[in-house]
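Milestone 3.1: sequence recovery, worked example.
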């Protein structure tokens, strides 16, 4: 399977988030070519700042694999991870992170800061820009719709 295949699976998760009124970010974790867990943003519906797509996917992968070390897994996410999610990636020992859109406001894999440049005990390999236009458009159209809804109410 290709990086685009897995990113499209993450995009499907982002679309689920958007349908629920959540910021459309989706994530999948892959082990040995198989998607073993998925996640999407749920902060608004769960009323919980921790309910990011990456954290849900990491949590589900840990449960499935019965352990916290995901050193044989790759993470695909539609938006560059924030500081909290980057910390979880470091702690879970995920070796490869593939993301779609860059996050110029909170991205911690290169846009604002690259937390993997610091002397933590784990450094993931990063690849950004996979299906970037499609991932960015999901976010842009979501926020455009929010602004339009506010104007009409």
């Amino acid at each position: 399977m290709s990086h685009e295949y897995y990113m499209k699976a993450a995009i499907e998760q982002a679309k689920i988030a958007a349908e629920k009124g959540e910021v459309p970010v989706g994530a999948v974790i892959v082990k040995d070519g198989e998607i073993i867990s998925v996640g999407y943003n749920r902060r608004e519906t769960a009323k919980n700042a921790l309910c990011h797509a990456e954290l849900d996917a990491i949590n589900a992968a840990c449960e499935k694999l019965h352990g916290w070390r995901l050193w044989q897994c790759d993470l695909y996410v539609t938006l560059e991870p924030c500081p909290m999610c980057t910390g979880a990636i470091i702690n879970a020992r995920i070796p490869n992170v593939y993301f779609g859109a860059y996050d110029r406001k909170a991205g911690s894999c290169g846009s604002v800061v690259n937390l993997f440049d610091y002397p933590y005990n784990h450094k993931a390999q990063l690849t950004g820009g996979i299906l970037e236009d499609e991932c960015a458009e999901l976010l842009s159209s979501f926020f455009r719709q929010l602004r339009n809804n506010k104007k009409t109410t």
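The chain has a mean pLDDT of 95. The radius of gyration is 15 Å.
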